[in-house]
Write a structure and sequence with these properties.
This protein is globular. Strand 2 and strand 3 form a beta hairpin. 3% of the residues lie in helices and 37% in strands. It has one domain. The protein is mainly beta.
Length: 163
């Protein structure tokens, strides 16, 4: 299988994606705790020319934006609606909240990057570019394979290398 290319749609890649643990997963806009069965939105992004998708934001249904407000030049970004489900590991007796039934609502291709008019970003998370256009700044979250003391995979907001 070495050298083979497998093509999969973003929907196929995102189904079952671990988003966090019950009690630890919160809307990254309003801070409300998110539970199994709730509809949420996810912003997934990947740099042009790579195969690794990064999870940037999880939001509750009330905070779901209608569009990708400020596309990032050089990145493909997807706004995805999904439902939270539970994945249980019987051997470790641990559960994770995962994305179920993902539907891509909109996408931003890597060549697109235009400032948007609007006020849908938090002032504390906004920064200004040299051109004066505000851009949203929230660190990406990735699923990393460096185990914590329990040996389970964890979501790390500080990871940026896409491992």
């Amino acid at each position: 299988m070495m050298g083979e290319t497998i093509t999969a749609s973003p929907r196929q890649l995102l189904v079952g994606l671990p988003l966090g643990s019950q009690g630890d997963l919160r809307c990254q806009h309003c801070g409300n705790e998110l539970y199994e069965g709730e509809p949420v939105s996810v912003i997934a992004a990947r740099p042009a020319g790579t195969v690794t998708w990064l999870l940037q934001r999880v939001r509750c249904q009330e905070c779901t934006p209608s569009a990708i407000r400020q596309p990032t030049l050089g990145w493909t970004e997807l706004l995805v609606r999904c439902r939270l489900g539970t994945l249980a590991d019987g051997a470790t007796q641990r559960t994770r909240l995962v994305a179920l039934e993902p539907i891509v609502l909109t996408r931003s291709p890597p060549a697109e990057s235009e400032p948007q008019m609007g006020t849908d970003t938090d002032a504390s998370n906004a920064r200004i570019t040299a051109s004066g256009a505000p851009i949203e700044h929230e660190p990406p979250r990735t699923i990393v394979d460096s185990p914590d003391s329990s040996g389970e995979r964890r979501t790390d907001p500080e990871a940026s290398d896409g491992r």
